[in-house]
Task: inverse folding
């Protein structure tokens, strides 16, 4: 169980350090590309993402209509994660460079696909 979590974190870290900057043409990148900074950014994005989902649940948006929620859950998840990436970029500018919301959305889509593939493989 712990080994699976470690593998997931390492693969997501590689995606954030290498794949996301390639996909977004450098629009979202860990500054200086260090593994520690990448891990710090990954943890911060996860925390902000988690808080965002709880805020949506409090407002009732996440559970408004079950069928509609299932259909658009992927889109909403990508948008929430993109907002989380932008927030982390603003809070920690020395760690994560985020050019604009469009590049954050590209990074979010990339991380979502990588996360999905990692979950399938691990």
Result:
């Amino acid at each position: 169980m712990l080994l699976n979590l470690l593998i997931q974190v390492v693969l997501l870290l590689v995606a954030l350090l290498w794949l996301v900057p390639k996909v977004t043409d450098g629009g979202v990148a860990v500054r200086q590309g260090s593994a520690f900074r990448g891990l710090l950014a990954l943890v911060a994005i996860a925390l902000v993402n988690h808080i965002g989902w709880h805020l949506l649940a409090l407002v009732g948006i996440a559970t408004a209509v079950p069928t509609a929620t299932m259909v658009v859950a992927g889109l909403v998840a990508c948008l929430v994660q993109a907002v989380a990436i932008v927030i982390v970029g603003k809070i920690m500018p020395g760690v994560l460079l985020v050019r604009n919301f469009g590049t954050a959305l590209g990074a979010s889509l990339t991380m979502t696909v990588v996360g999905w593939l990692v979950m399938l493989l691990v």
